[in-house]
Amino acid sequence: MSVMLTKFESKSNRVKGLAFHPTQPLLAASLHNGSVQLWNYRMGVLVDRFDEHDGPVRAVAFHPSRQLLCTGGDDYKIKVWDIRPQNRKCLFTLHGHLDYIRTVQFHHEMPWIISTSDDQTIRVWNSTSRNCIAILTGHSHYVMSAQFHPKEDLVVSASMDQTVRVWDISGLRKSTPNTAPGTFDTFDNFSTVKYVLEGHDRGVNYAMFHHTLPLIVSAADDRQIKIWRMSETKAWEVDSCRGHFNNVSAALFHPKHELIVSCGEDKTIRIWDLAKRTAVQTFRREHDRFWALAAHPELNLFAAGHDSGLIVFKLERERPAFAVYGDQVYYVRDKYVRAYDIGSGSDIGLLSVRKFGSPYIPPRTLSFNPAERAVLLTISSDNGLYELTALPKDAVGEVKDSSGDGKRGSGQSAIFVARNRLAILNKATQLIEVRDLSNSVIKTIKAPVQTNEIFYGGTASLILSSTASVVLYDIQQQKTLAEIATPPVKYSVWSADGALVALLSKHTITIASKNFSQHTLIHETIRIKSGAWDDSGVFIYSTLNHVKYTLSQGDHGVICTLDNPVYLTRVKGKTIHCLDRSARPRTITIDPTEFRFKLALMRNNYEEILYIIRTSNLLGQSIIAYLQQKGYPEIALHFVQDKSTRFDLAIECGNLDVALETARAVDRPDCWERLAQAALKQGNHKIVEKAYQQTKNFDRLSFLYLATGSTEKLTKMQKIAEARGDPMSRFHNALFTNDIPARIAVLRDVGLYPLAYLTAKTNGLEELALDILEVAGLSEADIDDVPSFGNSTLKPPPVINKTTDLNWPAVNDAENFFEKALANGALERDEPYVNGIDGAAAGSSALDDWAKDEEVQEDLPPEEGGWDLDADADEAEDQEQEQEQEAEEELGDGITPGVSETALWVRNSPFAGDHAAAGYFETAMQLLHRQFGVTNFAALKPLFLTVYRSSHAYLSPISSLPPLQLHLRRNPEESSPSRFLPVASRTIQSVRAELSDGFRLVSGNKLPEAKAVIRAALQALLLVSVSSDTEGKEWRDTVTLAREYILGVSIELERRRVVEQDPENVKRNLELAAYFTHCQMQPPHMQIALRSAMGNFSKANNHASAAKFARRLIDLNPDPKIVAQARQRVAAGDRNPRNAVEVAYDEFTDFEICAASFTPIYKGSPSVRCPYTDAAYLPEYKGHLDPLTELTEIGLGSSGLPAP
Amino acid sequence: MDSSELYHVKQQFILGAYKPLISLALPPESSPDYVPTLVYQARAHLALNDPSAALSLLPTDSEDVTIKATSSLAHYIAAATPPSDENSEAAEAALEELRDLIVEIEGDDLEASERDKWLVRVLAGTAFARSGEVEEALETLGLNEDNRASVEAVALIVQIFLSINRPDLARREYEKCKKWAEDDLLLQLIESTINLVTGKEGYSDCNSFYTEQLANPSLSSTKLLTARGVTRLLRGEVSEAKSDLEEAISQGGADGETVAAYAVAATLRPSKKGEGDEWWSKLTQEFPNHPLVNDVSEKAGLFDEAAAKFNVPSLPTVTV
User: Fold this and answer.
1) Min Cα separation B61/chain A (Å)
2) Residue A823 confidence class, pLDDT cut points 50, 70, 90
3) A1117 to chain B nearest CA, in Å?
4) What CATH number should be reported for the domain holding residue B265?
């Protein structure tokens, strides 16, 4: 473990407590000066600080899943903070401790906070109720730390009283909610000390549970770290780690590996092997004592706080060594070389490299030689080593270790440069050795520049990474071919065809052609981690938090964000293959549309562009800006959904139709004005008119009508002006329409009698003129001094061309490839919107919009769109109301009720029971009618209602609103609405249970009751849904069984009736008794039938038949007493094999029993059936109600139980 | 930040601990908590469907908009339950009062905090939703307004959406709300309500929400027991549901919802024969206005109508 990589460092006052955020790159540090800092350690910035504690803050913890932080300070207060960026603030403060607070922690699932204090107590708080719910007492000195067990209801605490204690808090979880805050009487029931661990000679500073094993680690002022083990009943000391030479502040189990990390006042951080209890590594600091230590729960990250700040570090490099060849990724995980097949997903270990270099360090690089199937690994331990090993042909049996036949040497960088050559760099001597496969040196090269790393540079070439450049070096000629200035290059990735190489530095990517003749440089502010080439020649790379792409000319963009860094290995279509931080193969699905689109644009591949437009949901401001910037506003139009952007774009590329459509949607005056201007420029006066109408720009509208010669509309405008009471407008319109009386009327109305008079006069309207005079109270004499004017010739020019009906020839839309393709293609290819599978509706909806525009162009109402020009004043108001109504309707449209759950049930199920549960009784009846010929539903009513009411529950989560109807589903785990089904309130099992009740009644000789029960069961079976064929069969068997019983019971009841009412009719009595034995009942009931038949037949002296029944009875193995009785009958039958009464009973021919007349229907004779139970009837009963179930019509066709 | 007393009052209200809430002592009139607590108590009465108690609590001469809105809502509930023609005028008048209040709070000259204004909208929205004016309710509650600052309004919107089978829209509102009210108790309730309807992941979220709240030591609410019972019913854990509901009933929470849920549970898994029917008749007798009762009687009519469409043939006459 020679590596301790510092990721981040900060300077501050003494750090007393540290906590990692479980998911975000945040670290909370509590300081001795009372402040709590929130660092983003990935970006290296102080995100926020909280300064509400007085005095040192020692305790700090993040909530495992919520955005909460808890702190505790020497002011005895525990504070809980909201750490969401927009409202970071203290949510509440918990008071109760009587001395300094040492540690706090949130429980992983309950809303609990545990805190420890110098007041010798540990307290547990409920963060929802903000009450203290338990005080754990027992320690006799300061309690320095306490932590919950990660799974069990245990707490481990460490105290200055030299003990570590384990507490059982299971009582706390079980306890009934304590409603009255402040009553702490029952604390001792909540929690008990389970173990007291004694062994430290001084105060204990820290103790924690192992994440998975029953272990505890503790750190104490006796300079020791102790490991303890627990069982169910006891706990004992296992071992100590000695090495610190001053107080140990903290010791943690490594979350992933078998290591312990500790820090202390001796200014060291030490790493220990948990199994061997030996020191692995020590990290020393010059001046600062360490006080706090924290481990990230998931990542290989630790933080340590010291006298003057904190450091974040990791213990090992995470980047797995890997190489990609074709679809195979060769990589190292846990010191095993593994091969992962991208195609098949197989992932197998091939070679162990456990003995290569330090056991704690993974190899740094891996180079793969496909010809020899060999790997070349390097490791940074022992000042740099390499090892060449052939991989086994097939990974059968035990994986071998490379120490056997591996060839090793020292060197910092080693790669294969040819099938049988490897190059090894020795940084100290700056010599590059070329060796053959037997590891003997062939050639030695002196590096031409200071080289830190070497990469494969194409055939017989090397890329040398120097401090400020990369050099392409020819091994054969031993000369520099080219050089590019770059920051130090750390990794290189060749494209599949070997034409391009991407050189990755910390913050730059250089894409160079293979001879370095062309190159582009991309800067990234975030650290670049890895990269891989797409098959189409786009370079995909990952930074700390993004997956991005770059085209070879340097256009780049984000594909998706990452929570944690990954190392890309291969990009295939939409899938990125990568290794995660723990070197596990992963895939990420990406949307390659954006870069494919850009690539296609760059290559002018219009077909491809078109295809992408058609099939994908390419959207977003960036792509629109990109298209605008690259000069394709008309393409951009196809991607824009946002109406106002769409309007802007449409205006920009002069597409009036789209502009009109979007202006309607946006409906803002400025849009209409801009549209009017743009339309005016193109001479499309109809759209101008529309726009003016929308903005109520009456003056311009009138003038437009004048210009286009639309006299009728001018007349209408005049009326509107009148209605509006705008004399100026009226006058204008009168002028434009040359409507002299109207003009005079306006003038008169506004009291301009002189003008009115003159207008009338000059237009030869003498009478009117006189009229005006009279109104003005004058006579002709009074106006003698007015000179006399001749008749006016003023009038608007006549309309020569009916422009109003024509649109002037418009500026031709720049109809380009896309317009044409999109317009025609939809018709030609007949596969316009094929992206339904991805659910990528946006792209097609853009097209739909576009198609709509087309339609709108055709049926754009020429004039009356905006408001009715025939309208008088009232109607104009109506119009406004109408618009309001429209607005309301839109609101209404937004919230149309959705599909109810019950409708889904009905849609998803062919079973009547499910329809009944959904309350769709009518369809349920139709189903029953179709499937089973049911026509008499009256008896089913309670059943239907019960099924319905047991499928719904009501709950009102919000006060005073009507309760919500909730629907009970059959399978609560089901998440697809297309498989939602109602709860099965009647199941085959429940009905069978009812049936057995019926059978029991049969045994108890309560036949009428039995018949009712069985009939009810048959009714219930109609509402049972089955889910499989086996269940379907079971259902059918149940129905058949029930039918046999109900038939048998009916026969027996009939027999009893005959015996009672018609005792002379022995024949019928015997027949019915005999038929009863032919119902397929279970043996106990069959015995009853047979005994009854046997008895009746022998009583009637039909001994032969009685003997036959007796034999059948014996076959059923009844009670010995009954056997004896039966044997008597057999004997009697043998003695006297005759029948006194002739009965219609032929046991040798198969027969069924007509369930109406209870007479046999012999095999081959015609019969009709009950469509539900399949009971047989004589043909004459066709069309009647089935007497057994009283549900169905006999002989009706039916489809039977539907397939589930 | 609420004072912790008010916090508890609010918590009790949200979690349906209406009875304990009502029995709380009011803070002194001078306290800033006085009016909010009073309003919560009145609303608790309303939630228990006791508008007259709510009205007796509220001063009639108050200028406070929240009190005015609460009494209007109480008037509305009093007039509109059960819906009847005689009272429709009174109900409509109460709605008009609320509409006026909405207009009033939208004006600038009213001295009321944002929070009070939102409360008025919530109360008005409740009345509108009850009266079936879905669109008006949504508008009042500020659907499509970006600056919504009331989780309660969101809760109402969500339930309205759920009641018209639009869990998608409900979830959208919830997601929006989550951005600014992440840790709110009511928000968790909203989420669990949505999940009750959609059944996401086998109702596990709602189940754990109610379980967690049941373990909340600062209050006890039979409503939570009922809610968990219903959740368990939805999860198919009928006997567990029954035990929850039984406990709720034994603790005095025998309201319509609990009895209805128990009737369902008893029908699905009767512990003795006819238990379901027994509870059902209890429900129909004691809560004749429960929606399930109304619904089922409506369905019964439907059944007769549908059954009448089929011709029932006669039973065969047998002559042997």
Assistant:
1) 24
2) very low
3) 34
4) 1.25.40
Secondary structure of chain B: what % helix, strand, coil (to 5)?
A: 70, 0, 30
The amino acid that residue A254 corresponds to is H
DSSP string, A230-282: E-SS-EEEEEEEE--SS-EEEEEE-SSSSEEEEEETTSEEEEEETTTTEEEEE
Tens digit of each residue's pLDDT (9 = 90 or more) over A26-37? 999 999 999 999
pLDDT category at A77 given cuts 50, 70, 90 is very high
> How is A1172-1188 classified by DSSP, letter by letter?
TT--EE-GGGTTSBPTT
Q: In the predicted model, is pLDDT for residue A219 greater than 80? A: yes
pLDDT of residue A1060: 86
- Reported ipTM: the value is 0.90
Count of domains observed in chain B: 1
Q: Give a yes or no: residue B275 inside a domain.
A: yes
Any chain B CB within 8 A of the CB of A553?
no
Residue B228 within a domain: yes
> What pLDDT was estimated at residue A173?
75
Kindly state whether residue B130 falls inside one of the protein's structural domains.
no
B135 and A67: CB-CB below 8 Å? no
Range of the domain at B257: 201-296
Mind listing the pLDDT tens digit for each residue in A1100-1111? 888 888 888 888
**Inter-chain CB proximity A950 and B214 less than 8 Å:** no
CB-CB contact of B210 with B223 (8 Å): no
Q: Do B260 and A953 touch (CB under 8 A)?
A: yes
CB-based contact A420:A436 (threshold 8 Å): yes
Residues A158 and A225: beta-carbon distance below 8 Å = no
Residue B61 lies in a domain: no
Question: What's the whole-model pTM score?
Answer: 0.48
Residue whose C-alpha is closest to residue B9's, from A112, B32, B194: B32
User: Is B304's CB within 8 Å of A1190's CB?
Assistant: no
Q: Which of A110, A129, A961 is facing B156, going by the closest CB pair?
A: A961
pLDDT single digits (tens) B5-22: 888 888 888 888 888 888
Residues 1067-1086 of A with CB under 8 A from B: 1068
Query: Distance between CA atoms of A447 and A494, rounded to whole angstroms?
Result: 22
Say if A893 is an interface residue toward chain B (CB within 8 Å).
no
Partner-chain residue, chosen from A950, A952, A1194, that has the shortest CB–CB distance to B276: A950
Mutate to test the interface with A, among B218, B282, B290, B314 (most CBs of A within 10 A): B218
Could you read off the pLDDT of A945-977 as tens digits, one per residue? 888 888 888 888 888 888 888 888 888 887 777
Check A892 against B77: CB less than 8 A apart.
no
> In the sheet where A45-50 sits, what is the strand order?
A15-20, A26-31, A36-40, A45-50
- Residue contact A955–B219, C-beta within 8 A: no
Q: Which of B43, B234, B296 sits opposite A968 (nearest CB)?
A: B234
Does the pLDDT at position A812 exceed 90? no
